Structures
1.
Amino acid sequence: MNSLQDTIQLNNGVHMPRLGLGVFKVEDGEEVINSVKWAIEHGYKSIDTAAAYQNEEGVGQAIKESGVNREDIFVTSKLWNADQGYEETLEAFETSLNKLGLDYLDLYLIHWPVEGKYKDSWKAMEKLYNDGKIKAIGVSNFQVHHLEDLLQDAAVTPVINQIELHPKLTQEQVRSFCEKQGIAVEAWSPLMQGQILEEPVIKELAEKYNKTAAQIVIRWDLQIGIVTIPKSTKQHRIHQNADVFDFELTKEEVASISALNEDHRVGPDPDNFDF
């Protein structure tokens, strides 16, 4: 892990950057355009958005204005719950692609496991993947039982499962299952919406390495082998979040951060959501 250009090879051979920019709750228009442009200018290669974030147009505009070749940027978007089902998924994908102003997506995810619908959605995503409109397909917020259910009928194994993951929610069971299936794991809310940054263990390590608490957590993400997409709308923070390649936590330090786990969520429970 030497730079922002470092990638993980997904189970279908596609290479995905290990560290990217998330744009959840980033307002469409100037705010998201600036965030994405600052990230790309600084060397970020991966941008993660979703239909539900309502900022795909701004993300697409920023990519266009950045002047970087399309194939040098890894773009992820997600299928929203209200758009699940076979035909609905095909339609929602085209809507996202048009908003982004792109010819293809690098990664498309089912945002949440909507009961009775995610299998039909997956069939549609397999079609889009086989038609070459998406380089890779995956899921988000899937628990082990959702994955087991999906894999019973899936012709294509998801490349990734994007889940809430941070030192208070280390998701050992899901990570272990995904590893056995060759499914990569990606963290959303890796900084626990800022709540994790006051933890004494993390603050001590930040002092030791002359880093920010956020940089310590992002480095922990990378060292436990997951993809991570910290979000920020501030240029200096976007730069800081990427400055994690000039130090390495010891095995003991990684373990001490993992030991903070309390199975505590800041986001919705994938087994109990109503949206």
2.
Amino acid sequence: MCGYGYGWGNGWGGGGILMTVLMFVLLVAVIVAIIFAVRHLSGSASPHHRGGPGPEGMRAEDRLADRFARGEVDEDEFRQRMTLLREHR
């Protein structure tokens, strides 16, 4: 009367619960690996997207120095604005 499908654990024995848990952990690990691979390959894990040294993540002083280096502001305006930025930290 203890054929397959009728015994305790449907014939899997005591390892059925362990195998179910391990299969779930493996499935979660595969999903997480796929997410990280897609983020890495798409470039969304770069410092620019995390608020690093990209234009959005630059400090105001760095942004002003960058504008000065490109010639968008002259030396007098650069010094005035830099002084103002440092006073209001």
